[in-house]
Every structure is written in structure tokens, then in C-alpha cells.
Amino acid sequence: MRKQIRQANVLSTQKITPHLQRIVIGSEEFKGFTSSLIGSYVKVLLAKEAEPISDIEMKNAWMRSYTIQDVQENTGALTLDFVINMHQGPATDWAKTAKVGDKLAIAGPGPKKLDELNQPHYVLIGDLTSVNAIKGYLHLLPNSARIDAIVHVPTEQDIIELDTKRSVNWLVTETPNQDVPSALDKLSISQDSIIFMAIEAGLMGKLKDFFTQQYQVSRTQIVASGYWKQGVDSENYKLQRQQLANTQ
User: Starting at the edge strand that comes first in sequence, how are the strands of the sheet with 222-228 ordered?
Assistant: First the structure.
């Protein structure tokens, strides 16, 4: 079933780090959204032409997934963080120049990817594209669970507040393919660990092999998403994933 399309306006926009633009969006159609949606995702629809987006006209929109960073309880307005100055694509370009009053639409929200919520140990791995998904799980997982969270960022200025008492290992690095596995080697990982990672596609593939071969973690216990791909803009990466899905 197609998710409901909700019209939205930009309510505020602020560059919060060298690589993150925080944009609040909302409208009368957002009423009823609550903080339980933090860490869930929405499809952001940006018109290719200067017209409102409807269910029928979705083909005329750029569509990208973004994780909900926060929800204003009284209005349902959503806070989304857009990565800028790192990747190429229409959503990135839009976020850098967006201003209050600009129009867009959303589809969703959709569910969180991780649904095993009562296990003793979790390893959460993310970067700037998925830091708010990590935030959502840090708030959602039970206090009894042991959580090892690693978020790699390009600069120290990209470390943001996640409003949690849980410990987060912020890994400042320009070589995550080397440094993330090294950081994971310092953890107590077992066959029973649940792994969530939402990162660059190449690093995701490398870490899948790392967990299954070095720690014998079952693939069924690994929830992984390649949010972006090094050297490929967002539109071509989307096409590559569609082509792969059609061959499976």
C-alpha cells in the first residue's frame, strides 16, 4: 500500500555542523505525530518542477529517505538532518539552499529497521547519514541491554547531542574502512550479539563479512543498510539498488 503523501513547508533551517543542515518541516497534516517516531524514517519528496506533489505525481519528485531527529508534540512538525558538503544529489543541493516557506512533501513515516528489541547485547554502527537512527535506538532499547554504539564522523565539529545517558563512541576519522573495524575489535562481541548498521555501502559489505567470519554472528542477526555509496551520487546509487533488486 502506498504511504500517505503529506504536504509540508520548511519551518526553520540551520547549519548545525560543517556537514549537517537541520531542517524543521511541518503543516496542518502533521498533527498527531508524536515523539515515538524519533528514529523512524520518512520519504522526503522534492518536486522536480515548481508544483505541489500529489499521490498521482510522485514520479515528478526526487525521493529520499531521512530519519526523524525530533518531533514537536504540539504540532507534529518533524526535525530532519540533511548531510551536506559530502555527497552529491538533489536532496543535498536542496538542503543547502532551503529557506523558510519552501514547499516539499513526505511519505510515511515508515517503521524502524530493527525489531529485535529485547536482546542482551546490541552493536549500533552509523555515520552522519544515520546518526538519528542510532539516537532512536538508544532511547528505545531497554535499560537492561548492553549497547555498544559507534558513530564515525569526518570532524570533531560534527559530533552532535543525542539526548541520551547511553555511552556513544564518536570516531573522528577520514579512513572509516580501517578505523571502524579496529574500534569493533575492542568490543566484546559474541554469536548472540544483534548488529545494526546504516553506513556507506562498501563499508557495510566489509563489516558483514567481519561479523560473520570473525565472530560467527548469523546473518539473521545483522540489520544492515547502505545509505550511500562512495564515489556514486545519490541518483545513480538509487538506480544501482533498483537494478540489483530487479535481478534478485
Answer: 168-172, 146-153, 121-126, 194-200, 222-228
